Structure formats: structure tokens, C-alpha cells
Amino acid sequence: MEIDQWRREYLLGGLRRSELKATPVEQFREWLEEALAAKLSDPSAMCLATADSSGQPSQRIVLLKGFDERGFVFYTNLQSKKAHDMEKNPQVSLLFPWHSLERQVIVSGNVESVTREDAEQYFQSRPLESQLASWASRQSQPLSSREELQKQFDQEKARFADGQVPLPDFWGGYRVVPHAVEFWQGGANRLHDRFIYRADDSGLWTLDRLSP
Length: 212
Known about the structure:
The chain has 5 helices and 9 strands, in the order αββββαββαααβββ. The protein is an alpha+beta fold.
């Protein structure tokens, strides 16, 4: 396997300043709509990077569940490793890897908790099996076997046999409030197009082109 020889050209198109929206949220919405129209697999999937109190980073894929001018929202177990990381260090990064469109979006910002009302509303919109899985999984904790996980799931299924599953007190959501958002479009000869929006002290966005 000659991994060092694997490469391809990026020829789908460029990105020009005149094409960009006034705010990163508007630009993200346009690109997300194009990702949906292109029928990408998991267009809402994003890599969440956190760092613990020692500075050790870790990453995982989570799903975007909402966004607006306030930020980008996702939900998770509040006792998970990522939750513990964010409690100690609220600075995070999100990456949307839209490879087949030769695009990526990087969001840098701080997290804040969403309200319990918002978490409740979203939790009740989930499929029943997903609700039960939230109760069954002690996320990030050691697990002796797959059978143990299935047993925990079956126990929760029996406990909530009436189909009424309440929001766990250890489950909720976070909003990433961005201070920088970068849009990357692949280009021929590795001359990629990169633009970054940065929020100034007054909350207004500035836009700069970055060297690839």
C-alpha cells in the first residue's frame, strides 16, 4: 500500500468572495441545502473536537440538530467524555466533511447548554428505540460485552413498556456559539479556496481569504 502516492485533483469548482453571504450562518445554510440536494450520506454529521483539562484532544462524530444565528446545536449524554471535556474546557471545534462536494466547514467556538425545555422537545421527537438507547447506555463507561448492552436495553424497554419515555436527567444538548467559521472549497493544483468569518468584539462578522 503506497499511501504516500494516493491523491486526486479537486475540480468541482472554486469559491469567490462575491459568492459568499454576509454571515457564516447564511453561507452554511446555502451549503447545507446543496449537500442535501446532492443526497450526501449523513450531511448533518460533524466531527466534534474537544480537549480535556490536560489539553489532550479527542474527536467523535455527532449529528447537527439545529442551527441559527445563536449557534450550532447537538444532543448527547451529559455524563459522556465529551460532556466532561466541555465542562472543563468549553472551547470546541466542529468539522463538516462534505468530501464528495470537495468542501468542508470548520466552526470554532464555545459551548453553552441548551434549555431543558429544548432538550425535552427534541428528545420526545426521537424514535422510541433511540429514547430507550439513551437510558440504556452509560456512555463512555466500560462495558463487559455486547450482551450486557442488549440486556440494559431490554430492561429499559420493559420499564417503559407503555411507550412513554421521559427525558433522562443525564441527557441534554449543547450549542456551539461560533467566533470563527471557515469555508473550504477544493481547487486544482492544490490551490484551494479558503474563507474565514470572524466575529469582532461587537458581534459583527469580518471576512478574509486564507492561503491554502
